[in-house]
From TrEMBL, chains A, B:
The protein, known as: Glutathione S-transferase
Pfam families the UniProt entry points to: GST_C_2, GST_N_2
PROSITE patterns, per database record: GST_NTER
Residues spanning the membrane: none
Domain (GST N-terminal) ranges: 1-82
Domain of life: Bacteria
Amino acid sequence: MKLFMNEGSPFARKARIFAREKGLSDRIQEVVTAVSPVDANSALARENPLIKIPVLVTDDGARLYDSGVICEYLDTLHERARAFPSSGPARFETLGQQALCDGALDAAILCRYELALRPVGLRWNEWIEGQRLKIGGALSVLETEAQSWPDEFEMAQIGAVCVLGYLDFRFPEWEWRRTHPQLAGWYRAASIRPSVVATAPA
Amino acid sequence: MKLFMNEGSPFARKARIFAREKGLSDRIQEVVTAVSPVDANSALARENPLIKIPVLVTDDGARLYDSGVICEYLDTLHERARAFPSSGPARFETLGQQALCDGALDAAILCRYELALRPVGLRWNEWIEGQRLKIGGALSVLETEAQSWPDEFEMAQIGAVCVLGYLDFRFPEWEWRRTHPQLAGWYRAASIRPSVVATAPA
């Protein structure tokens, strides 16, 4: 399989951590791919009409996106513990945890585009503040939930690593640890997992 | 159950059409909810930390989001044809069709915010053009796929109605029909379905 990705993309990281946690990384060739919302990568557009990463090309030649679809597909290929319960409340709890982290990442990426890509004179502070409220809301939920997280490392934990790692990478000045001590403690321990180390943005 | 929604939200519409198609609308109270990315609805923030709609409150009191999670949950509650195949290539085809339409809607909503919410002097044309490329890419795929769509009305078709209905609602000047004749013909027929009529933005 091929995974179009780059090291800075937190959604690509979700798929990359997932593959490593489930013992699938030997079967996946990672293809470093440049993306920008204002400078379309025409090669990537042939793989995904939304011109986004990650995209997984399966051994059957199917193109899968977004990151949630990729993780659920990869979850059918391994013999370890399933990350996505097949039914019932546990399934929807997992999907909800994923949606929470995806939403925080969407907001953080919009902040990144606003503050690093958009010309300085066109930036809008209310937009940033609105997106930061969403990130803060998600972090508050994670701060509570992390207190009861077991040692397992499934979608909730993978999602949290992607969110917190991205905040450290792009917005260290927001100092999320100051107001989220439980999460900071959990993240310190999670950060030494091989899958997390191997996928950390440079 | 309660569904936080408003008539202008295409993601809320996805859940609302789904509920009607599967005979579940009698069990769902729709709660009209104002949202703005720069003027947070604090009541909504208590239901969904991402401060977005749709949110479904189940009979057990769980809060479900986003629209894909809601549709998959509703799919467990009815006795009609399942919209989400339980496994195999058909499942990932369905999830991919949903991801395609969700991505087009994300891009269209960003265009809407840029052109209607952001102060005039802060708008960035390259951003709009970049998002329009994503929408165009998705429409090209739908134009091809619609030629072989059967009469069924499942995730691909619900997603397409939400995308095309939103373009008509917010961007009629883009005239998507001019370059997508197959899709225009399909949409003309789809537009008279009761679930589509009942959820059309005013």
